[in-house]
Input
Amino acid sequence: MRRVPTKQVKHLTRRQTEVLCLLVGGWTLKKAAALLQVSPSTVMFHKYRLMRMLGLKTYADLVRLIKQRLLNVQVRRVQSP
Output
């Protein structure tokens, strides 16, 4: 997995962020689509665009990246006075 510039992660659209949160949270494409009131192919398209934008090849890479980012944020919060 290549290193992803922080700038790219910070500039996700609202919909990309929603899709990302749902998928990483364990939602299926169909359930995420129903919640967002879009088709499953739309959710798949957003997932594809996210992975392409971030230079990731597999869904596992995407989940790993998000978990690492979340862990870094949590560690910084604990270390901050």
Q: What stands out?
A: The radius of gyration is 13 Å. The chain is about 75% helix and 0% strand. The mean pLDDT is 78. The domain at 6-79 is CATH 1.10.10.10 (Arc Repressor Mutant, subunit A).
